[in-house]
Amino acid sequence: MDLDRARAVAVEAAEAAGDLLLQGTRGRVGTRPKGHAGDVVTDLDLASEKLIVERILTAYPTHAVVAEESGLLGASGGQWTWLVDPLDGTNNVAIGLPAYVVGLALCQAGLPVLGVVHDPVTAQTWSAIRGRGARGRGGVRLAPPYRDSRHGPLLAWTQGYGVARDDGAVLALKSALELGARRVLQLWAPLLSWVMLARGDIDAVVGYRAEAVDLPAGALIAQEAGLEIRALDGGPFEERIDGTPEDRSFVAAHPAGLDAVLRLVRSSGI
């Protein structure tokens, strides 16, 4: 498998979808409910997904694709699976907030080996190949420095759509983070949080039962930029796509600042 070619295909697809989204958000965006937890979907999600899936399956007709809106497409049962988040930040777009990205990941036997995130608003693309580092604008390698803050870390929070509002663990965890962190961002666009971490804009990302479709691309980019990811109890974390929602709870931070964030998590008592 030529991962450089796969990255080129993914980047071109993500950027073409980004152009579509950027044009579409300049007009009225129609939304409709999705599920029973207050989530929404738009025609832009579907159009972006169609574009990306067609490009991937044209280039790799024997691969499987798991797309956020359409589910499993292509040939199942093989070792190669693409994950497609055609519009990460739909709820932001619905209220006119220009904070959204496009994300793709390629997994081999359930483990991500390629991740791509594109921001249509800033026209920036980030990508990573396992073991070969992460790239930002102009192909510059991402390697954010550690910055120690006496006011606590600046972190982002993400949780899965299926997590109940009154989930006791979430309430305890978010309370502990709010008390100990300098600021807790809730961006409604997890992949945007991941690239902010990989760039060094924020200090950590804490996730609780994160969605499977957008976790692998962002986590791989962060890891390849030198960040570390652990389970909430400080144990090992693996961003596989075949795990359960419970397996997708994590803390991600610079290795030098990871223990401080884990102490905040432990203070929640969960």
Can you offer a commentary on this structure?
- 32% of the residues lie in helices and 26% in strands.
- The strands form three sheets. A seven-stranded mixed β-sheet has the order 4-3-5-6-7-8-9, sandwiched between helices.
- It is α+β, with helices and mostly antiparallel strands and 270 residues long.
- The N and C termini lie far apart (42 Å).
- It is built from seven helices and 14 strands.
- The protein folds into two domains: 3-139, Fructose-1,6-Bisphosphatase, Chain A, domain 1, CATH 3.30.540; 154-266, 3-Layer(aba) Sandwich (D-Maltodextrin-Binding Protein, domain 2).
- The protein has helices spanning 3-24, 43-59, 90-94, 168-180, 190-199, 215-224, 258-266; strands at 31-34, 39-42, 64-67, 71-74, 80-88, 101-108, 111-119, 124-129, 134-135, 154-159, 183-185, 204-208, 228-230, 250-253.
